């Protein structure tokens, strides 16, 4: 879902916090579910738990919104997907994948005029971004 560097950083921070005793096993479960839940409902719940905990900031919070958006998109709930991608972008304005996925969601909703600016930004940030 996320690029490998961001996923690795997320995993490293989570494992580091577990070792230091700052993350409970329940939080580790939410991280796992948010990244690769057994179905979109589980993924949404894990991401929502993490977002609502108030313990995430920066890239980690943006990643949780991004993953939640992906799960909503998989379910065909493009309004919620767009809202989560928008949150991810607000937190991390250079998040090319979030712009690209938001553009795809707009396109699937039949709003190509809203998709184009996001796609332009996404490909400007990362030419390999699909939208």
**Low-confidence blocks of residues:** 1-21
CATH-defined superfamily of the domain at 4-94: Tetratricopeptide repeat domain
Q: What is the CATH class designation of the domain at 4-94?
A: Mainly Alpha
Largest sheet: none
SSE order, as H and E? HHHHHHH
CATH architecture of the domain at 4-94: Alpha Horseshoe
Described by the principal axes of the CA atoms, the overall outline is: globular
* Oligomer status: single chain
Task: Give the DSSP E fraction (strand runs of 2 or more residues).
Answer: under 5%
> What name does CATH use for the topology of the domain at 4-94?
Serine Threonine Protein Phosphatase 5, Tetratricopeptide repeat
> In angstroms, what separates the terminal alpha carbons?
15 Å
Mean pLDDT: 83
Q: Concise description?
A:
It is built from seven helices and no strands.
Question: Can you tell me about this structure?
Answer:
This protein is an all-alpha fold and 131 residues long. The chain contains seven helices and no strands. The N terminus is likely disordered.
């Amino acid at each position: 879902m996320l690029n490998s560097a961001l996923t690795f950083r997320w995993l490293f921070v989570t494992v580091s916090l577990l070792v230091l005793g700052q993350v409970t096993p329940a939080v580790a479960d939410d991280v796992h579910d948010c990244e690769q839940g057994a179905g979109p409902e589980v993924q949404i719940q894990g991401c929502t738990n993490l977002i609502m905990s108030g313990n995430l900031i920066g890239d980690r919070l943006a990643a949780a919104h991004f993953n939640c958006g992906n799960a909503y998109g998989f379910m065909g709930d493009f309004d919620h997907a767009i809202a989560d991608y928008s949150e991810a972008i607000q937190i991390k304005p250079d998040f090319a994948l979030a712009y690209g996925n938001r553009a795809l969601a707009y396109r699937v909703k039949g709003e190509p005029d809203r998709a184009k600016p996001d796609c332009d930004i996404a490909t400007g940030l990362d030419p390999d971004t699909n939208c």
